[in-house]
Design brief:
Blueprint lengths: L8 E4 L4 E5 L5 E4 L14 H24 L7 E11 L2 E11 L5 H14 L1 H6 L4 E6 L1
Parallel strand pairs: 5-6
Antiparallel strand pairs: 1-2, 2-3, 4-5
Helix pairs in contact: 1-2
Length: 136
């Protein structure tokens, strides 16, 4: 197994701080969302995780689609990451929606399920984050 790429991001201040990548491309203020008692008006860990997962998942969809000659024009992936609490314990859950205008909902569902099997973020969260995958 060869390492292809390593990203390094440093956080300071937790949910009310900053995140900066080692290359300077990411330099963001992070704030707790208003729904969690924060001031909002900045990104948060759940948004950043959803952004990373959605772009990675769409890459997995493209890889699976290429083998099946699927037209991916205007395809989109929306990931919703939810911060949950139960019995004073916190956990994440996620919903992934794949929309491919050239496919029926049933075909998009099958493609989403195949992509979920190969997406590195989906693999990393398997068994840890309750995830619903849908073709829409």
């Amino acid at each position: 197994m060869g390492q292809l790429y390593t990203a390094a991001v440093t956080a300071t201040g937790g949910r009310n701080g900053e995140v900066k990548s080692s290359d300077g491309i990411i330099d963001l203020i992070v704030k707790k969302p208003t729904e969690m008692g924060g001031e909002g008006k900045a990104t948060n860990p759940e948004q950043l995780f959803a952004a990373a997962w959605s772009s990675c998942f769409l890459g997995a969809v493209a890889a699976v689609s290429e083998k099946n000659h699927v037209d991916m024009t205007d395809a989109t992936v929306t990931v919703r990451v939810t911060f949950n609490e139960e019995n004073n314990a916190f956990f994440l859950s996620a919903e992934i929606d794949l929309h491919v205008p050239t496919l029926s909902i049933a075909e998009a569902q099958k493609l989403a399920e195949k992509a979920h099997l190969v997406c590195p973020y989906s693999k990393a969260t398997k068994g840890n984050v309750q995830t619903k995958v849908s073709g829409i």
